[in-house]
């Protein structure tokens, strides 16, 4: 095989291992000084990572979204701050891939491939996740628009050459009252844009988390992304895509945590024997590995759904974004509980990498919608999902694509993205998948898949019976959403295993982890 | 498959929507006016999409749920739907 030469993931791995910019001591020192990891980002530019952020149809190297997620996960596994800093360009550009006209997308693609940093400015100081509350305004003028207002807590707002900005274009607001613009800072008049200072953060301390202030910023009509008034619809669809990238970064943090804890347990000798010899340490490491497998199954299917199941992406991406960062935070906390007292968190082990990771990982949970926002998006669709489950509605071709990591991704179809999902094919196909496991798999799996099918049926029955009112979502609905997430992740694990039915004990551990977390017996 | 013998009228759609919205809000259908934006009743924009999705299931046709954003009252939505169903 010559794949090692051509495979971008293998080449990236080699860069991360060899480049002095990725030396753990260097990155730890930058974090302590709250300085931006500019050399590491430059090394990723030189490697050509930005071209992987641009779809092939716009001149880049992005075919399937699973591939770019794998690259971001590899960077995050080494350093989450670098992944957050560099990956932002991918997130910042998505709205243009979805709704921009082909010439604008080609221009943006060329800029990114040449190394331009792209940011995305949605949130405001007074409104947080409430996009419809946004006050930054764009008013029409001859040949274009004038923008005024502030965006705040924006990753790369200061470093970016280009910024995707959500602006109010109807004073009355509402879901058709906002429009997206792609601002090219170099084309603005001097003084029209002022960067707001970097905000000191708990984790990812070196990242450029800042803001922009626009005062009478004139842009041409060609700065508008998609139809005027469609900014909310486009950005909600863009978030469905970008959530899967956040999830990939979270998995990279989980990989890093498990790697560090495993090395620490092997290297730390207490009372004459390594910690790794102790059953309680082995158990926590095995649990962490199963949690990561479960998170990975959900993430793998969700990111492949961008190409393969775009009509279901609103649900699958929300589920993955609510589930994966929470799983990773939880596994880091468990590793901390058991290995922290022996010094895992301290500065003496790998330049304090674990303590830093523990801080850094938490921020991914709030990017692109917190777990609460994502669970709420799922809860809004409970009724329809319950109905689809009853009908057994599913897309078999799409399901086959998303559950087979070797299947070539189908072409990205932005027009197929929808703000509401018709169903969840992964869960709809679970009863059939369970039958196949029972028929062909080892006996140890049969009882577990039966319990999973039963638990999934109960979750949908409760969803159907839930008396939901807008604005009064009871805590029980969030608990139900969490169980739905676990059913989905476990069902994804079963589907992926059926494609490559090896290592049954690993699937067994994944299922046990999911069923335990649901509290089923 | 849409049933050609039961093509919905603006009136039948309006009645169905009133019941659906009332059900979501936990209010009596008589208290739902058809000529005011649904946001008047505290239905936020994203939540309103699920009502459009129920409509899609009810009519068994493929609809873009953001139709409810472009036609935010029950009257406007019913009229737009009839036009859309005729053109389909």
From TrEMBL, chain A:
Classification via InterPro entries: Acyl-CoA_Oxase/DH_mid-dom, Acyl-CoA_Oxase/DH_mid-dom_sf, AcylCo_DH-like_C, AcylCo_DH/oxidase_C, AcylCoA_DH/ox_N_sf, AcylCoA_DH/oxidase_NM_dom_sf
SUPFAM superfamilies (UniProt xref): Acyl-CoA dehydrogenase C-terminal domain-like (SSF47203), Acyl-CoA dehydrogenase NM domain-like (SSF56645)
Keyword Oxidoreductase part of the UniProt annotation: yes
GO molecular function per UniProt: acyl-CoA dehydrogenase activity; flavin adenine dinucleotide binding
Entry keywords, A to Z: FAD, Flavoprotein, Oxidoreductase
Domain Acyl-CoA dehydrogenase/oxidase C-terminal: 229-378
Pfam families: Acyl-CoA_dh_1, Acyl-CoA_dh_M
Protein's name in the database: Acyl-CoA dehydrogenase
Source organism (scientific name): Actinoplanes nipponensis
From TrEMBL, chain B:
Pfam families xref list: PP-binding (PF00550)
Residues in Carrier domain copies: 11-85
GO molecular function: phosphopantetheine binding
Keywords carried by this UniProt record: Phosphopantetheine, Phosphoprotein
Coiled coil (UniProt feature): none
SMART domains for this protein: PKS_PP, PKS_PP_betabranch
PROSITE patterns assigned to the protein according to its UniProt record, in alphabetical order: CARRIER
Domain of life per record: Bacteria
The name this protein goes by in its record: Polyketide synthase
Protein species of origin: Actinoplanes nipponensis
């Amino acid at each position: 095989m010559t794949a090692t030469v051509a495979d971008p993931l293998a080449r990236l791995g080699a860069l991360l291992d060899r480049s002095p910019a990725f030396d753990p001591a260097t990155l730890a020192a930058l974090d302590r000084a709250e300085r931006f990891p500019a050399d590491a980002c430059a090394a990723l530019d030189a490697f050509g990572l930005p071209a992987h952020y641009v779809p092939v149809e716009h001149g880049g190297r992005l075919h399937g979204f699973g591939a770019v997620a794998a690259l971001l996960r590899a960077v995050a596994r080494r350093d989450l701050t670098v992944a957050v800093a560099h990956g932002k360009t991918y997130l910042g550009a998505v709205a243009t891939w979805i709704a921009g006209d082909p010439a604008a997308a080609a221009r943006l693609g060329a800029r990114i491939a040449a190394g331009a940093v792209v940011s995305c400015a949605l949130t405001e100081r007074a409104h947080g996740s409430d996009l419809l509350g946004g006050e930054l305004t764009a008013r029409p003028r001859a040949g274009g628009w004038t923008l005024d207002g502030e965006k705040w807590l924006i990753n790369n707002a200061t470093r970016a050459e280009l910024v995707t900005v959500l602006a109010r274009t109807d004073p009355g607001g509402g879901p058709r009252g906002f429009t997206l613009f792609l601002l090219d800072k170099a084309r603005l008049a001097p003084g029209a844009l002022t960067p707001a200072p970097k905000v000191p953060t708990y984790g990812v301390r070196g990242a450029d988390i800042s803001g922009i202030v626009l005062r009478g910023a004139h842009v041409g009509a060609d700065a508008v992304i998609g139809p005027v008034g469609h900014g909310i619809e486009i950005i909600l669809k863009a978030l469905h895509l970008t959530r899967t990238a956040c999830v990939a970064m979270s998995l990279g943090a989980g990989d890093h945590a498990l790697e560090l804890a495993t090395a620490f347990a092997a290297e730390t000798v207490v009372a004459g024997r390594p910690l790794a010899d102790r059953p309680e340490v082995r158990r926590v490491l095995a649990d962490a590995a199963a949690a990561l497998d479960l998170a990975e199954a959900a993430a793998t299917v969700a990111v492949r759904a961008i190409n393969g199941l775009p009509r279901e992406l609103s649900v699958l991406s929300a589920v993955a974004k609510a589930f994966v960062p929470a799983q990773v935070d939880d596994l880091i906390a468990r590793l901390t509980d058991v290995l922290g007292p022996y010094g895992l968190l301290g500065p003496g082990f790998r330049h304090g990498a674990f303590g830093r990771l523990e801080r850094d990982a938490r921020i991914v949970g709030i990017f692109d919608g917190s777990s609460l926002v994502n669970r709420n998006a799922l809860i809004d669709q409970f009724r329809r999902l319950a109905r689809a489950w009853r009908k057994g509605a599913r897309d078999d071709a799409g399901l086959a694509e998303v559950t087979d990591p070797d299947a070539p991704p189908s072409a990205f179809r932005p027009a197929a993205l929808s703000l509401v999902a018709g169903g969840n094919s992964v869960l709809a196909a679970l009863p059939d998948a369970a039958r196949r496991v029972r028929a062909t798999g080892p006996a140890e799996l049969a009882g577990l898949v039966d319990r999973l099918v039963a638990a999934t049926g109960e979750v949908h029955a409760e969803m159907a019976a839930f008396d939901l009112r807008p604005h009064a979502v009871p805590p029980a609905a969030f608990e139900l959403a969490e169980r739905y997430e676990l059913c989905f992740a476990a069902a994804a694990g079963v589907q992926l295993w059926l494609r490559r039915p090896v290592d049954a004990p690993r699937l067994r551990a994944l299922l046990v982890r999911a069923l335990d977390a649901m509290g089923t017996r | 498959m849409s049933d050609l013998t039961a093509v919905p009228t603006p009136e039948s759609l309006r009645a169905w929507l009133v019941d659906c919205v009332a059900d979501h809000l936990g209010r009596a259908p008589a208290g739902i006016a058809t000529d005011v934006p649904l946001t008047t009743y505290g239905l936020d924009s994203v939540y309103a999409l699920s009502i459009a999705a129920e409509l899609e299931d009810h009519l068994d046709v493929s609809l873009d749920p953001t139709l409810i954003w472009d036609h935010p009252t029950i009257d406007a939505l019913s009229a737009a739907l009839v036009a859309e169903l005729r053109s389909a």
